[in-house]
Amino acid sequence: MLDIILILVAVIVLIILALASRQPDTFQVSRSISMAAPPATVFTQINDLQNWQAWSPWAKLDPNAKNSYSGPQAGAGANMSWAGNNKVGEGSMTIVESRPHDLIRFKLDFLKPFKASNTAEFTFTSAGENTVVVWSMSGKNNFIGKLMSLIMNCDKMVGGQFEQGLSAIKSIVEEAG
Fold first, then answer.
1. Helices within the chain (DSSP H only)
2. Which residues contact 22 (CB under 8 A, 6 or more apart)?
3. What InterPro entries does the entry give (predicted)?
4. Is the N end or the C end of the chain the one with fewer CB atoms within 10 Å?
């Protein structure tokens, strides 16, 4: 009887490992929103990392997180590091490219709850009186990431956070405008 149980457990583990190995090597999450504000106004809100406390969904998950800033206040080279509860973890982000009213690209380095390096970006496109803002993140799926994707949907989880953040930015820039 014990032999049968051990064989069944081994088969289940092998099936899980096989399913995980078939998951994509990369991932991308992207959300967009139209805002009744010019690209310059929206760009400024995102390009200055200290503004993120007003709209970042992760700032709301841990208002007591410890944030530190280095480099310039805004634009390429601006850096924010954070250490918070288990919902926000620990890591840093650095603006690696900043093209006014067009694009902001970040390097994201997560240290906790697990290590990962990803790329995130915001793009801004004029649409008449509005600006369409796209927030996206992409990265590589290591084996642990592939295994976790069997039980967690990264697109829904992170995408939901992006939607909250974009809605908060929209409120800020539309009230200011």
1. 2-21, 39-47, 57-61, 143-148, 154-176
2. none
3. Polyketide_cyclase/dehydratase, START-like_dom_sf
4. N
Q: Which two tokens stand for residue 175?
A: 């009230």
Q: How many CB atoms lie within 10 A of CB 86?
A: 9
pLDDT band at 60 (very low <50, low <70, confident <90, very high): confident
CATH code of the domain containing 118: 3.30.530.20
Distances 122 to 57, 100, 166 between C-alpha atoms, Å: 16, 11, 10
The structure tokens listed for 140 are 């590589």
In the predicted structure, residue 155 carries a pLDDT above the cut 80: no
CB 71 within 8 A of CB 78: yes
Share of the chain above pLDDT 90, in %: 53
Q: What is the mean pLDDT of residues 153-160?
A: 76
Q: How many CB atoms lie within 10 A of CB 125?
A: 14
For 70, the domain range is 1-176
- Six token digits for residue 1: 């009887």
pLDDT digits (tens, 9 = 90+) for 83-122: 989 888 999 999 999 999 999 999 999 988 878 889 999 9
Q: How many domains does the chain have?
A: 1
